[in-house]
Design a protein that fits this description.
- By secondary structure, this protein is an alpha/beta fold.
- The chain has a domain of 267 residues: Rossmann fold (3-Layer(aba) Sandwich).
- 40% of the residues lie in helices and 24% in strands.
- The chain contains 13 helices and 12 strands.
- Strands 1, 2, 3, 4, 5, 6, 7, 8, 9, 10, 11 and 12 form a 12-stranded mixed beta sheet that branches.
- Helix 7 crosses helix 9.
Length: 394
């Protein structure tokens, strides 16, 4: 049994032990801990805007490969012809806060006064880079989002879409629209002309991204392209890959997102594989099996488009045609089938019209695991190559 002396020592030591514990615990209170409230406060900060009566006005940067003309009132007119050099600047886009995610028709929204451009200013490249560097440095994520749209979009339409997308996505990050002359005639010859302009505009986008990487130096560079704008991105990556400092093992782009890509499957497979791996840390490709616009594009080009894949979910074997995308770089590529939620115009514009797409895009930006998205469920092939299917109404 313990002696009286040992009992006395224990009784004497206990207060000191308790005191030491109190000091240790209070000391831990001064250790900097990123609490949940602080984390989510930084993560979910909202897109800044100004008020104009009942409207919201967002400032967006732009870089355009279009030829420009000066009007009599000294305002800028953007033509549908390619230019020999880029035009840089900033614009204000007005948004009605009552706007909802749904059918995106820029001309109708503009006529009704729901969305519109207020001011467009041109800037010298040096001023443009300086201002862009300042806003990126002041943003909570030190980030920049680059948007590239597709066929049939004139400058005003792309500006409206950029403002609409930015406002509804609602991430506090500077946004830059890369605009190219995709607004050609709605015909086979007009599409072919737009396609050639998409290819020739790739180096201009590549030059812009290279300039951003080297001079602006955002900690997070996100690139989102859609439709024929994805072809512009492919040719931009081809341009960037020729630079040794960009083609090394270190990736420069945090996430590349391609929605309904109007890109040839063979080109994506053969040309884009090495460039994708070298330049982007993550790549997400959204595809569907019912995209009417890409079906027509495939017929015109004589080759299946990446954004349209023939899938029958009741027969997993039919999904193998699309799994080659994932197999190119399994750790980099996220493949998401949006067929179940693709109810957009021409079964093509879901990247502006589907709430589920906005939700998933938001999570992709912050690198949230796919299995945390309630709209996604996982499919796996027999070779353990997986892809995700997006559903609504859950």
């Amino acid at each position: 049994m313990p002696s009286k002396k040992s009992k006395a020592l224990k009784a004497f030591a206990l207060p000191f032990l308790l005191l030491a514990c109190v000091h240790f615990i209070s000391g831990c209170a001064f250790i900097p801990i990123n609490t949940a409230s602080t984390y989510f406060k930084d993560l979910y900060r909202r897109m800044p805007y100004q008020r104009d009566g009942n409207y919201r006005v967002l400032n967006i940067f732009y870089a355009s490969s279009r030829e420009t003309r000066e009007r009599a009132d000294q305002s800028v007119r953007f033509t549908n012809d390619p230019a020999g050099s880029m035009t840089f600047g900033e614009m204000s886009v007005r948004i009605d806060p009552r706007i909802k995610i749904g059918t995106m028709l820029p001309k109708q929204l503009r006529r009704r006064g729901i969305v519109g451009i207020q001011d467009v200013s041109k800037k010298d490249k040096e001023v443009f880079i300086k201002q862009l560097t300042e806003v990126v440095g002041a943003s909570p994520h030190k980030s920049l989002l680059v948007l590239v749209f597709g066929y049939q979009d004139n400058f005003e339409s792309t500006a409206i879409k950029a403002g609409y997308f930015s406002y509804l996505l609602d991430i506090n990050t500077p946004v830059i629209l890369f605009d190219w002359p995709g607004d050609q005639a709605f015909s086979i010859s007009g599409y072919k002309k737009a396609f050639s302009f998409a290819q020739s505009s790739g180096p201009a986008l590549g030059e812009l991204l290279t300039m951003i990487i080297r001079e602006v130096k955002p900690e997070k560079l996100w690139v989102k392209s859609s439709s024929l704008g994805c072809q512009v991105v492919c040719d931009a990556f081809d341009f960037m890959y020729k630079h040794e400092d960009l083609a090394d093992k270190e990736t420069e782009i945090a996430h590349l997102i391609m929605a309904a890509p109007d890109v040839g499957q063979d080109e994506f497979d053969k040309q884009f594989k090495d460039e994708l791996a070298a330049l982007s840390e993550k790549v997400t490709v959204y595809v569907s099996s019912n995209d009417t616009a890409l079906l027509i594009s495939g017929m015109i080009n004589g080759e299946r488009r990446v954004g349209r894949q023939n899938i029958k979910h009741e027969q997993l074997e039919e999904a193998k045609d699309m799994l080659y995308l994932k197999s190119l770089e399994p750790d980099k590529v996220n493949l998401i089938d949006v067929t179940p939620i693709n109810r957009a115009s021409y079964k093509h514009g879901y990247y502006l019209e589907a709430p589920e797409f906005y939700d998933d895009f938001y999570l992709k930006i912050f690198d949230v695991e796919p299995n945390l998205n309630r709209h996604l469920y996982l499919f796996k092939s027999e070779n353990n190559v997986d892809y995700w299917v997006m559903e609504g109404g859950k």
